[in-house]
Every structure is written in C-alpha cells, then in structure tokens.
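Think of the structure tokens as a kind of shorthand, similar to the way a musician reads notation: each symbol stands for something richer, in this case the local conformation of the backbone. In the example below we present two proteins back to back. Begin with the first one, reading the sequence and then the tokens, and try to describe in your own words what changes along the chain.
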Amino acid sequence: MASAAIAGAGLVIGAVFLILGITGVVSRLARALPGSIAAGLQLGLRLSLAALGIRLIETRLWLGVAISALMLGLMRYQRSPVALVAVLVGIGVGQVLGIAPPFPIPDFGLHLPHLVVPTWAQIIHGTEYAVVPQIPLTLTNAIIVTAAVSRQLFPREQHPVNERNLAITTGLGNLLSAPFGGYLMCHGAGGIAGHFRFGGRTATAPVLIGLVFVVLGVGFGESGYAILKTIPDAVLGGLLLFSGIELALSSKLHEHQGGDLFLVLLMAAIGVALNPAAAFAVGLPIAYALQHEWIRV
C-alpha cells in the first residue's frame, strides 16, 4: 500500500473508534458479551505470545536460551530491570559476535515527519484493505481484552482503563499520527502484559518509553530505527515467551465450568491457530447458545 493509502486508513479507523468511544457503543458491546468470550480471547492471546516468542528464539537458539536463562535468574530480584538488562546484553553480544546489524552512525539532528494528504480514492483503498480486516482485531484484542487484562492485573487500582477510554485514545492516536506517516496503531493486551511482567506498574514506564521513541524518531531519523534493529530477534523472543507464559499460567480457568470452560479452550485454540477475530466470530454464537441452553456440552 502507498503511504497515502495507509494514512487514509488511519484516518478512517481513527474516526470509527473515536465515535464508538464517545457514543459509549463500545462499552455496551463489551457489557453484552459473556465473560467466557473475553476469557477465551485472553488465553488465546497469552499462548500466542509464548508461541511467537519460541519462533523468535529459534532464529538464534543458543542466544535465546542464554538470554532466557539470564532473565530467569534476574527475576528472583523484584526491583531488577530484567527487560532492559536482557536488551542491552543482547545488543552487546550481537555486536561482538557480528550476528546482528552493525550499530549505525547516529544521524543526530531535527528529523520532522512530512505531512501526508490522501485522496478520496486512496482513503477508499486503505479502508478496503486495512480498515475492514482490522476493526474486529482492534475491537477484540486492543479494547475488550486489554480492558479485561487491566482489570485483572490491577484489581485494586482506581484507574480509568476501560473500553470507552481505550476506544477514544485509539481513535485520537490514529487521527493525530496518520497525517504524519504513522501506521495504524492500537492498544494491546500483549503490551500491557509485557510491561507488567517486567516491572512497569505505573504511568512512568509508558511515558519514558514514549519519550525514548520520540527522541529516536525526531532526533535520529532513520538511524534511530537502525539502532532498534540491532536488538537480536532471539532476545525479543525471550521477552515475549516469559510474558506469554506468565499470563497463561495466571488464567483463572477454575472460574469456568462445563460448557463455559469448553468455550474458553475452544476460543483459545482458534485464537492461536488463526487470530482473535476468528475466535470471536466462532465463540460468540456458541456462547449465546450455551447461555440460552440451546446446546449442552
């Protein structure tokens, strides 16, 4: 897709979720869904994270195993910056052994993004190929499941993380970034799981991460992205593996019995094999059939 078509898609999907959030429609959708739906999506996502981590570790097996062992040892100390240490060690090993792209010469300066103005034809093209397939995934994984995971990880926090706020911020994020070349973006349950697993428990963590990326993009331009590419895939795999396993083990399967438990496991399997949208499409009619006792498991 051309950059202008991507920008058009970002504007459309931003408008869609901003409207869903402001009107409260997304909250009503989330409340209408049976609890087994969110549980199945959550479990599938957690297992998918672990599976993706294993695939990335396999790209450089010895390094992935070594980094995973290092993280496992550091996790014994609660205040240890496990993820940061793993990334820095991974970059160092990659540079010394020449198994990662060479560290670039920083191109420090002012690198401002260019304004991208799509035509109506490009907006329609972006909507057809990017917005329509993405809406179910964003609604399930980025909003409904992210809100559920937030409530599970922070049960005693008085925070405003809910489906409405996630939809509004998803909409605003896309509307603000799309005209400047930003790709379609959303929140993610996997992201919050990773933050939580490696110690990011307050707003300070995402604020610092955001500042780092702004500095890399505006201050270093293409060389900023090249710096990120020096992190070996096997190191990223270790991070994903631990995030996925931790959350999969914390799934409260004991709260679901009989037909509900069957549905949770079925949706998790479909989510891993295909994607959350497919699991949602299959699980929703089954959930209502079980709820009204049209079928028995």
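Once you have a description of the first chain, move to the second and do the same.
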Amino acid sequence: MSGGRRVIVIGGGLAGIAAALDCAAGRANVTLLEVRPRLGGAAYSFEREGMQVDNGQHVFMRCCVAYRRLLARLGSERSVFLQPRLRVPVLSPGSAPSALARGALPAPLHMAGSFLRYRHLTAAQRLRAARAALALARLDPDDAALDEVSFGQWLERHGQDRDAVEAFWDVIVRPTLNAQASEASLALGVFVFHTALLANADAGDIGFHAAPLSDTIGEPARRALSDAGVDVLLGWRAEGLEREAGGYLVRGGGEELGAQAVIVAVPHARAAALLGGPAPELARRVGALGSSPIVNLHVVYDRRVCEEPFAAGVRTPVQYIVDRTAAGGVPAGHQYLAISLSGAAREMQMSVPALREAFLPALRALLPRAREARVERFFVTREHAATFLAAPGTAALRPGARTPLPGLLLAGAWTRTGWPATLEGAVLSGHAAAAAALEQLQLTPAGARAAEPALSGAPPPGAGA
C-alpha cells in the first residue's frame, strides 16, 4: 500500500465495507471507523434467550448484483438462498391463500398467469390493475417530474381504489420502499416495478439470509477487511470532521486521525452532523431527508404453524411473515416467525403488550394452525430511522458520492444511487465513493470485482415448502 495516500471510511455498514475493500484493492492505506463493537451496520444479529435474532428481515432480489457480488467477496454466498423462481404467497383473513409468481413467459408477461388467478382482487380490480401496470411500463424512470407526485396519487388517477392498492400494489411497494404507495415517490415506485418485475423475468426472484446476519455479513467482513490490510477500529465514534492542509482530520474520543480522503458512510442524520463543519450547505440538504421506521415482531410457537418460508398479508395488520426457525436456533419442534412491518410509524408508538394484543389474533386469522398453538416467546425490535423516507421530493435531496470538497465523499443507501434504501443501494454507494476517492488520490482501481455468484435455488433447511 501507499503510506502517503490514506483513506478514512467512517461507518462499518455495507456501504463502508464495500468502500473500504475497494480502496484497499486500489492500494490506498485504509482505516475504517465504526462506533459499534461489530460490523454490518443495520444488518446485524444478536443473541436473546439462546436464540439468534436478526434486527430486521433484510431480503434481496436476483437483480441485486452488487450485493450478491459482495457476499461472494466475503465468502458468504452459501449463507443465502435465492428463489429459483419468484413466488410470493399472499394470505388474507377468511380467504384461501393466493400467490404472485412468475411463469415461463418473457417479461413483462411472466406474471400474467398468477395475476389472473390472484384471489385477493376481484375480476374488475385485476383488469384495472393490468391497465395501470401497462401505463406504468410506459413511464420513463429517468423523468425527474415523477418525483414530484406520490405513487398513490398516480395509482388513483389510473383507477386503483384503496382496497386494490392494499391487496396488490402495497405488497410490492411497502417492503421495497419502506412506505405505503400513498406516501412514496412515484419515481421510486416506477424504479421498483421496472427493475424487479417489468424489465427481466427473473429479476424479482427473492433472496433470503439462511444464516444469522452477523454470520453472513459482520464476521466475514471483519476477516475480509483484515486480509485486505484495512485497519478496523471498532467502538470508535467520529465526533467531528474538519479540513486541514492536504486532507481532513477526524476527531473522536480525544483522538485525531488524518487522511487525504474521507468517506462518510453513516446514516444520513449522523452524516449531516459530521458534514456541518466542512460543508454546512450539504449538511442542511442531507439533514432534510426524512426517515421511516421498521418494527419486527418475533414470535415462537410450540409447533409448526406456517408451511411457507415467507408470506405477505393483505387486509390484515400483518405485512410479511418470515420463517426464521433454522437460523434462530429454537428448540426442535418449535417455529420462530418474524413479522416485518415497514413504514411502521403507528406500530413504533405501540407498547409490547399492545402489539401482542393486536398481532397474535391477526396471526391466528391468517394461520389456522396458530389457533391451537401456544406462544412460547413474543418480543419486539424497532429501528426508529431504518431508512430515509421515500417521499416525493426526495430525489433532489439525495447527494451523489462526490461533494464540492475534494477528498470528501459520501456513501450510504440514502445517497443518489438510483435505488431505494436497500442492501443493493448501500453496496453500490460504497463502490461509487471508493471509485471517486481513488480517482482523486490518483490511484488505479483494482480489476473487475468478483464475478456474479451462482447461488443455490434450494430452500434452506427448515424453511418449509
């Protein structure tokens, strides 16, 4: 490495990990600072009462190539499972299960068969939804005007009533944008549908983490960064950032670290605080980004109550159910279900007893076997600012990797990646920031990154049918 070309990466989430690995591969001297005692950022797991618990249900899609390549780079490709063919089981109280699944036809007709059989919309609703989907396909994702209105407003203008939005459109929008269609930017909604469902038939196949997130991301990243020569400082809080001759000083805990380039790869609220000194106008812009919460309910039953590895819920407070039995390490014969609630501003304010009272009956209404089962454990995890708020007007606030100051770069799913706040967006932002840093330091980036991995299409052990 070149001792005179030092890069400091602030933040050890996916964006920071990707940026640090790229900078090290480009022969920079890299130090990564992370305030927590572990790597992984918002994608981590912890132990509770002998269980391995992920802080959230982070899924990805086949089109998330950058994230899948990072997994391969970390040696974690065997810790994930990718559906061989998109299938989303959808449950509703009092109705037979249905599914949104791709067939053998090319895009955009690959979903037509399951959509025609989709029980949670009436025939008239399906016809109107099909017309809206055709109109959506004709929109240009690069049209800046799309960010000025909400996806919900556009759907209403195209004949989608509130029930159809809940029963179909929000099944896709809510987990990908962490917001309901009524609150989400049309531009981001168009991106999701074009990228995941309309462009390529297999793009939306869903990937899951079969092992705990810390075993998939945090620990493998620590080893990969060490092997790359990156100096990782855990428990190091960056409290201030200022320019100095030839670079920047990062202050924290009574220490100072200097570098020719700094990549700020922390959540946007923390980034705004750090940027306030060297780039106050940029800090105000970043600070104007809103945030959206995610709540996860963790329920352990004394028997198997759900045969699907995951399922969506409509016309119910339950949004998504994910079977985490195998990864969670629960006793044999039990089942551990994680209930993921996106855009969960209301649920964020509810107490644990109130959530239990609201959601256990809702689960019994969706899962007949749960009516006879005993709940062994029920607890809640909350991410108050899980993602930026994907609202209209957001695009103008999201900065790119480069800032007006040479050597000061930004990374994070909240930056202008083209993607919503996803695992893929975080990794792409890290690559972009590293490329800009290496260019400014006049270092040559390493060759092509790891090839796209071939991921298993078989379900993980214990994931059900």
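Compare your description with these statements about the second chain. Residues 291-388 form a domain with the Polyamine Oxidase; Chain A, domain 2 fold (CATH 3.90.660.20).
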